Amino acid sequence: MSIFSRLIDIIYPPRCAACGEFLCKDGPEPENKDLCFCRMCAADFHEITSPMCPICGAPFMSRTGEDHICEECLRNRPFYEASAAPYLYEGAIMTAVHQFKYREKTFLSNSLGPVLSEFAKTWVKESGNIVTMPVPLHPKRLRERGYNQSLLLARHVAAKLDTELDFLSLRRVKYTLSQTGLGKEERRKNVRRAFRLVTPNAVKGKTVLLIDDVATTGNTLNECSRVLVRSDCKKVLCLTLARTPKG
Question: Containing H/E element for 154?
């Protein structure tokens, strides 16, 4: 840490992005050293572990047994090949995502981005001919929010994996309601035909690594994947910070 950075920390002591408490001088636990969260909140980041669905990545409420395909993926196979997330969408990670997404705390991308990138490095098994794409916002939503949180995360992932970053080819062409608060079927209908690939050759024959902040029902990821697969990409892999569990 530079002298200037130390001086800034003295004048403006860093606070935990989740609970607002001052960070202790020795920072978070070693395994969470890149997070700007206190030890207590960092410990409240619950990692996703087996059993889970190997396709949609959703963990099962039962903590016994092996990974197996969930009923929903058996009945309606998603367009993406696989989806994964490092954390359950609860506790401190939920608070962090809300702060990042809705409270204009874009600086959190400098902590959450590297966390997602490290996970991507271990999860993505292939290399070469990969393009990283964030789930896009509609221009109206982008003006309202001022930034696309998925793009901020995708920049870190693309840099870590040394892949191409394309945030212009996939567009959201339909202004949709927020998925928050909508039922399962309402979520599916809400994003139907909401996306368009304006440069089809951008993904042809490539693996697309699709980045978003949270996966709940997976409808947004699946609709984006539908558009990408029909544009002859090799396959789509979806990556999010957090995921809700299966019932």
Answer: helix 149-161
